[in-house]
Design brief:
This protein is about 25% helix and about 30% strand. It starts with 6 loop residues before the first strand and ends with a strand. With about 160 residues, it is α+β, with helices and mostly antiparallel strands. The chain has a single domain, classed as Gcn5-related N-acetyltransferase (GNAT) (Aminopeptidase), CATH 3.40.630.30. Helix 1 crosses helix 2. It contains 4 helices and 7 strands.
């Protein structure tokens, strides 16, 4: 893909990307668990409300969806007292290794801080540890839950 600026927008400003967000989140995390796409579509629609959380961000170049990240109240049933979370971080494969993931995660973290939190959380598979550390996230816990995820924190500056 050539030309044009990459934009990161609140999904409320570009609601036509809601189906793309739902599709990617569903395919990666929920389809393998046999959760219906319609359920994820309903959850993504919650990002179109007026509240500070949940909120989703979309990276795009014009009409081309590139990636997404969200801020949600809770992303781990094992850690219900941690809130808010940056979650559902996804960059389409052709657009990886271009800084888009870090940019989207940064937008989401700033939104969490703007909503009043001084700490935000994120969980990921251990293979993503170097990526999140490069972005300034601190490893808080390892091997959490049945998926043995890492939990990271980021403090407001």
């Amino acid at each position: 893909m050539t030309g044009g600026e990459i934009t990161v927008a609140d999904l409320r400003a570009v609601p036509h990307f809601a189906a793309d967000v739902a599709d990617r989140v569903w395919r990666v995390w929920w389809k393998p668990k046999r959760v219906p796409l319609e359920h994820i579509t309903d959850l993504v629609r919650e990002n179109l409300g007026r509240g500070a959380v949940p909120v989703a961000f979309v990276a795009h170049r014009g009409p081309t969806f590139m990636g997404t990240a969200s801020v949600i109240a809770s992303d781990m049933e094992e850690r219900p007292h941690f809130t808010p979370w940056v979650a559902a971080v996804w960059v389409d494969p052709p657009f990886r290794r271009q800084g888009i993931g870090g940019t989207i995660v940064g937008h989401a973290a700033r939104a969490a801080f703007a909503a009043g939190s001084d700490t935000t959380y994120l969980c990921a598979v251990p293979a993503k540890r170097p990526f999140y550390r490069r972005l300034g996230w601190s490893l808080h816990e390892q091997d959490v839950g049945k998926h043995r995820l890492d939990v990271f924190t980021l403090k407001a500056i």
